[in-house]
Amino acid sequence: MRAVEDALGVKIPNNARILRNIIEGIQYVQDHVIHFYHLHALDWVDVVSALDADPQATSDLAQSISDWPKSSTDYFRGVKDRLAAYVSSGQLGPFANAYWGHPAYKLPPEANLMAVGHYLEALDWQRDVIRAHALLGSKNPHLQTYLVGGMASPLDPNSQWAVNADTLAQIQGMFKRAKEFVDKVYLPDVLAVAPFYLEWAGIGGGLGNFLSYGDFPEADGTPWLPQGYILNKDLSKVYPVDHQEISEYVTRSWYEYDDESQGKHPWQGETRARYTGPKPPYDFLETDQKYTWMKAPRLAEHAMEVGPLARMLVAYASGHERVKAVVDTVLGVLGVGPEVLFSTLGRTAARCIETVVTAEKLAGWVDELAASMASGDLKIHEWSAWDPNNWPAEAKGWGHTEAPRGALGHWIHIKDKKIYNYQAVVPSTWNCSPRDAAGKPGAYEAALLGTPIADPDMPLEVLRTIHSFDPCMACGVHLLDVTGRELNLVRLDSPNAFAGPLLRFGGKAGPSSC
Amino acid sequence: MLEQPPARTLVLGVGNTLMCDEGVGVRVVERLAENYRFPEEVLLLDGGTLGMDLLYYLEGVENLLIVDAVQADKAPGELVRLQDDEVPAFLGMKVSPHQIGVPDMLFAAKLKDMYPSHVVLWGVQPARLEIGLDLSETVAVQVDGLVGLIVEELRKWGYEGERLG
Question: By the CB < 8 Å criterion, does B114 face chain A?
Fold first, then answer.
C-alpha cells in the first residue's frame, strides 16, 4: 500500500495518517503482551513449579511489585487449585510438549504462580483492547480498512455507522485499560523476572547491527520512532538508511539468480525457487551449500537485526527523549548499564519498554484524530490516483513500516498499469537470514553462537534466544497431534559445537512471509 | 471475534483451508451447514486458524464438538474419535505465536473454568499437506460420512438436525 502510494506520489489525508498510527500502535501493545505471556514467558516460567507455591506468599510478592487489583491470596489459590486439578487429571501428555522441570528455570514457585495468573489475565485483557481494531477496521486479525490513498473507515461525528465521538470514547477506554495492564502487570513482571536471569544479559547478543525504518509519522512527516541503523553496538552513531543499499542474496537459499555472487535490490528482485536440499525427512543440512527458504537481505552489505530492540536502540542513540527515559529507568532498576541491551534479555526488555512508550502514546493520537474531526476535516481517503489512466507509463515505489517484529519493506515496479515486479523483505527474513555470498551470518545464527546448553535433548536455552526475536513461522499448518508426541520442539544437530545454522524446527515451517 | 453466541453446543471446524487436507475440519462444518439446519442452541463455526481467539466462543457452551485434521499415526483418510480428557489440552512450547492452537485454547479453558462438560473430537488423518484449496481424494470421500457422524453426535446431545434440500 505504501509502496504503491510512493510509486504514484499519493499523499494520504491527515486523518488516515493518524488512524494508521492508532491501529498500528495498539497492535504493538497487544502483540508484545501476547508474545511475552503466551510464548516467551514459558521460556522463563516453569508452570509445574507453580504447584509448589504458597498462595499467601504469591499474593505478597504480587503486591510488592504492583498495585494491580487481582493479587489476593484467594485469587492465587484459585489459580493454583485449577492448575492442580488439571495436572492431576493426568490426561494425555499434559506437559509433554514443553520442558517443565528443566534446570535452567530459576524462578521461585511463587513467581511462577504469579506468572500463570497473569498468563490467564492477559487472555481477557488482549481480547478487550484489540476490539479497537474491530471498531476502526471491522475485524481483527486482518483489518478491512487499509487502501492505497488512505483508509476505508468513514469518519462522521453525526453518524452511528461511522467512526464518531462515541467510537473514540470507547477506544480511549480500551487504551486506558491497555496502558494500565502494561504499567501494572507486564512491566513489573519483566522487572521481577529479569533479576533471576541476569546471566542472559550476556548471552544471545549476536550481530550488533540494528536497523529501523522508523514509523508512526507525526503531522510534520517525521516518524515518532526514528529511522536509522547502528553498527557494531556503537550507540554513538546512527547511520541514515538509503533503501537503494538494500540487496538480497540467495547464495545459501533455495532460489536461483543468474549470478549468485551478487545481491539484488528488491526492484530487480527475483524469486525463482529451486530446491536442492535432501529429500525429507532428513537428518542433516549441508550449510556450505544452500540450506534454507530464507533469502539473505543486507543493507550496505551488513546483516541486520530488526525488531523492538533495533527500534529502541536507534531511538535511544538518536536521543528520543521518552525512549531514553524509560530505557534508563529500567536499566537503573536492574542496576545495569546499556551494554546489557545487546542480549537475549535486552531484546525481551526492549519489547516491554516499547510497549510502555507506545501504550502511553495512544491516547494522544486518539485526541489528535478527535481534534481533526472537530475542526470539520473528515477526509480519510485520497482518490486521485485510483484511475490507472492517470498513472505514468512506468513507476517504482518503496513502502516501509515497522511491524511489531521489525522492519518490513515492500518494493513495487509498475509498468503499463500492471505490476511488473513486487518484492517484500519481511522482518523474519532479516533476522532468520542465512549466510550471504561473503559468508556473513544473519541475526539468529550470530545470536546463538556460544549459547550454553544444560541438556542437549531439551535445548530450552536456544528457544529463549530465538523467541526473544519473536519469529514468524509455520503460519500454515496447525495439525493436532493426538499421539502425545512433540511436534514443534527444536532439535540441535550438534549440541556441543555451535558453529552455524544448526537449528531445525520440527513441524512444517515453510517459506515464511512475515 | 466480538459477538457472543447464545450457543450451548458448539461444532467447531478448525484448520487452514489453503493447505489442502489441513482444512478438512472447516470443510466438514461447511458441508454440515449446507445440508442441515439445527436448533438455535447449536452453533456451527468455521474456526480457521484462530487458536486462542476461539476461547471466548466456549462461554456458556456445554457440548463442544471439534473437527480437525489430526496426526494419529493412521492411514491417510482414517477417522479418529476422542472424547473429554482424551482430547489434547496442554500448554506447548512452540517457535512462533502463530502456532498457538486448539490444545492451548483447551488448556486455558480448563484454567479459566470454561471447559465444556462434554468434549468430542473427530479427526481425520490427512493425506496431503501442501498449498492448495482442495482436499485430497482420500480425505474428500470421508467428508459426507463424517457429516453423518456429527449429526449422530448431536442427536445424542438432544439435537435433531433437519435435512435440507
Answer: no
In 3D space, the residue among B100, B11, B13, B111 whose CA is nearest the CA of residue B61 turns out to be: B11
SS (H, E, C) A299-319: ECCECCECCHHHHHHHHHHCC
Q: For residue A95, which residues of chain B lie inside 8 Å, CB to CB?
A: 90-91
Using CB atoms, which residue from A482, A484, A489 is nearest to B80? A482
Range 46-85 of B in CB contact (< 8 A) with A: 49, 51-53, 55-56, 68-73, 80, 82, 85
| Contacts with B92 from chain A: Cβ below 8 Å | 97-98, 487-488
For domain B9-163, give the CATH superfamily: HybD-like (3.40.50.1450)
Distance from the A387 Cα atom to the nearest Cα atom in chain B, whole angstroms: 32
Architecture label for domain A1-514: Orthogonal Bundle (1.10)
pLDDT in tens, A101-142: 889 999 999 999 999 999 999 999 999 999 999 999 988 888
Measuring CA to CA, how many Å separate A14 from each of A128, A150, A310, A360, A369? Answer: 27, 9, 28, 21, 9
Strands B118-124 and B63-71 turn out to be parallel
Cα separation of B50 and A409, whole Å? 26
ipTM of this model? 0.80
Average pLDDT for runs of 10 along chain B of length 165: 68 92 95 96 92 89 94 91 85 61 88 94 92 93 96 96 90
Q: According to the model, what pLDDT value does residue A92 have?
A: 38
Q: Which residue of B has its CA nearest to A514?
A: B98
Please, which residues 481-510 of chain A have a Cβ atom closer than 8 Å to chain B?
A: 481-485, 487-490, 505, 507-509
B2 and A131 in contact by Cβ < 8 A? yes
Whether residue A286 is predicted with pLDDT greater than 50 in this model: the reply is yes
| Model pLDDT, residue A494 | 39
Q: Which of A94, A467, A473 sits opposite B98 (nearest CB)?
A: A473
- Which pLDDT band, with edges at 50, 70 and 90, does A395 fall under? very high
pLDDT in tens, A53-65: 999 999 999 999 9
- Kindly list the domain boundaries of chain A, sorted by start residue: 1-514
Phi, psi of B78 (to 5 degrees): -70, 150
Domain boundaries along the sequence of chain B:
9-163
Give this prediction's pTM.
0.89
Local confidence band at A337 (pLDDT 50, 70, 90 cut-offs): very high
CB within 8 Å: A490 and B96 = no
**Chain A CB contacts of B95 below 8 Å:** 463, 466-467, 471, 473-474, 488, 490, 505, 507, 509
For chain B, say whether A99 makes contact (Cβ under 8 Å): yes
